[in-house]
Amino acid sequence: MKTVVVFRIDKRSGVATYLQIVRQVEQALRMGALEEGDRLPTAAQVAADTRVNPNTTLKAYRELERAGLAEVRQGAGTFITRSLVPAQTGSESPLRASLAVWLDEARSQGLSAQEASALFESVHAAVYPVESARPAG
Asked: Distance between CA 113 and CA 135 in Å, rounded?
């Protein structure tokens, strides 16, 4: 079992910190960076790395547990219980290939990785407004 997630918290995003953690775990699951059986960092580890209250991390982990994505094993930690990898995520995936072409184009237009990510996030929020409008807290 491995621990493979490092959380990045953006306090200016307007998104509740616990939801940022949940969404980052979900994204890691979709991308295959986290797999069934992987151990999430402890609340204390996350607090030390991100300066987030450990209770915030515990709230995120409870949400992941409620969603059936993780389970707490007393004395052992929090572990991923299922994957969110779509059937076609490998190099053969048409969506992945299209995204790679888009990113190559963004780079050739002079966008930095951060600028490309910000552009993606703004378009994502416009296309998926319901998910972006979750209440903070």
From this structure: 28
Query: Which of these, 75, 78, 73, lies nearest to 59 by C-alpha position?
Result: 78
The token duo for 129 is 């407004």
Low-confidence ranges of the chain (pLDDT < 50): 131-137
Task: Please tell me the predicted confidence (pLDDT) of residue 93.
Answer: 62
User: Measured between alpha carbons, how far is residue 94 from residues 20, 62, 86, 99, 128 in Å?
Assistant: 28, 34, 12, 9, 20
Q: DSSP readout, 38-103?
A: PEEPPHHHHHHHH---HHHHHHHHHHHHHTTSEEEETTTEEEE------S--STT-HHHHHHHHHH
